[in-house]
Amino acid sequence: MACALVVTPRADVGAAIARGARPPLRCSACVIVDDRGHTLFARAALTARPNASTTKIVTALVVRRRAALDEVVTVSPAAAATGGGGLDLDPGDRYSVGALLRALLMTSSNEAAVALAEHSAGSHARFVTLMNERAEAMGARATHFVTAHGLDAPKHYSCARDLARFALRLLDDPVLARIVGTSTTTIEGPAGSETLENRNVLLESYQGATGVKTGYTALAGDVLVASATRSDRTVVVVTMGASSDEAAAVEATALLDRGRQLLARTVVTAAGRAVATLYFDPAGATEVVTGAPVRGPWRRADVELSFEPDAAVAPPLAAGDAVGEVVISAGDEIVARVPAVVSNAVAPTETSWGGRLVSAVLRGLGNLIPGIP
After folding, report:
1. Which of 64, 192, 248, 299 is 20 to 30 Å from the Cα of 45, by its Cα?
2. pTM score > 0.85 for this model?
3. Is the separation of the CB atoms in 351 and 359 below 8 Å?
4. What are φ and ψ of residue 122, in 5° steps?
5. Which of 3-7, 139-143, 297-301: highest mean pLDDT?
6. Looking at residues 337-349, what average pLDDT do you find?
7. How far is CA 176 from CA 66, 98, 105, 170, 279, in A?
8. Is beta strand 322-330 parallel, antiparallel or unpaired with respect to 303-309?
9. CA-to-CA distance for 78 and 65, rounded, in angstroms?
10. Strand ranges (DSSP E) for the chain?
């Protein structure tokens, strides 16, 4: 008699995703992204908005490609006339690229942004073109720059998701990461040593804070791109359009806390979780279970688990034998594969040539049966 294989998915596959307490999030446009680029939470995260001095994240990235830290920058009259930010420059002042990068990212000096742009690309306008090219190359979907400093201007905007993407790239650069994670530093200028203080208050108030950039204009409101690292995992958050710098810090703190909870909630399904049942007629049946834990920072609603049986599955089977894979998907992306094994033995069954052919056909059909999210 033919030994027919029937795959029956389990309806409770996703039930093992842990649930954690969720702090209230009051941001109007915000995002939480982990260090692997996964979006853990988003609210209006692709909506283009004025983004103020968070622009300088990309300014720094472009400068790092085009200028060495020890190069000397001579401040032009145009750069000195920009106004705003924490380090005021005069025409003819001479600073190293490294010093101006610290002023750019820590005190949000607009003069430093223009001086670095002119030095790196020959003109501010050319540098902004390079910024837009770099943003596009990084996959930005709702970003366009008009200046290197981020003061309000028509058609100058970004979105929370793009800003998080830029921040991750900045944190990958050891020099820039060190700058944005520093609370206080000293640079050398025309008048001697100057002390710079980072405007990101979370560096002092949030455990594990590592950056990244503050911003404020009348149109943008307060914008904060923040990051924190604990247990070798980093979370980047962005909050846009806050009513004050204090409100932005509170919102970013809540986002970082939520991100930590989501990262801690990594067990999607434990080893031994049943995902399907295999029926072999007349040999019997066995449950298919995950042969290893499935871990990831995904939300329950975003995760799908499906069973892909091996085309050669047939009795006899011993408990623990591999019979295919459990495929874990988040959105359109396959994020993991783990072995699928049987939970109990299935006795051998004598099968004729014709029966084996029928069984093979049925097994092929079993491949088409998807798992239940």
Report:
1. 64
2. no
3. yes
4. 90, -30
5. 139-143
6. 86
7. 14, 10, 9, 6, 58
8. antiparallel
9. 23
10. 4-9, 29-34, 39-43, 72-74, 94-96, 184-189, 192-197, 209-217, 221-230, 233-242, 267-269, 274-281, 284-290, 294-295, 303-309, 322-330, 333-342
- What is d(CA 60, CA 130) in angstroms, rounded to the nearest whole number? 12
CA distance 173 to 101: 13
Half-sphere exposure of 165 (CA within 13 A, CB side): 17
Give the CB-side neighbour count of residue 321, counting CA atoms within 13 A.
18
- Are the C-beta atoms of 309 and 363 separated by less than 8 Å? yes
Residue 12 has which token pair? Answer: 């409770």
H helical segments located in the chain: 56-66, 77-80, 97-102, 110-121, 124-137, 160-171, 174-180, 202-205, 245-264, 353-366
What are the beta bridge partners of residue 65? none
CB 294 within 8 A of CB 326: yes
> Cα–Cα distance between 59 and 148 in angstroms, integer?
6
Type of residue at 201: V
Sign of dihedral through CA atoms 63, 44, 33, 86?
A: positive
DSSP 148: S
Q: Are 148 and 57 in contact (CB under 8 A)?
A: no
- Domains of the chain are 4-17+268-366 (2.60.410.10), 29-264 (3.40.710.10)
Q: Which residues are known catalytic residues?
A: 53, 56, 108
Structure tokens belonging to residue 237: 């958050």
Give the C-alpha distances (Å, rounded to integers) separating 63 from 58, 155, 176, 299: 9, 22, 11, 37
The model's pLDDT over 48-103, given as tens digits with 9 standing for 90+, comes to 999 999 999 999 999 999 999 999 999 999 999 998 888 989 999 999 999 999 99
Structure tokens given for 25: 């999030």
Which of 6, 3, 2, 4 is CA-nearest to residue 276? 6
Closest CA to 330 of 37, 60, 28, 9: 37
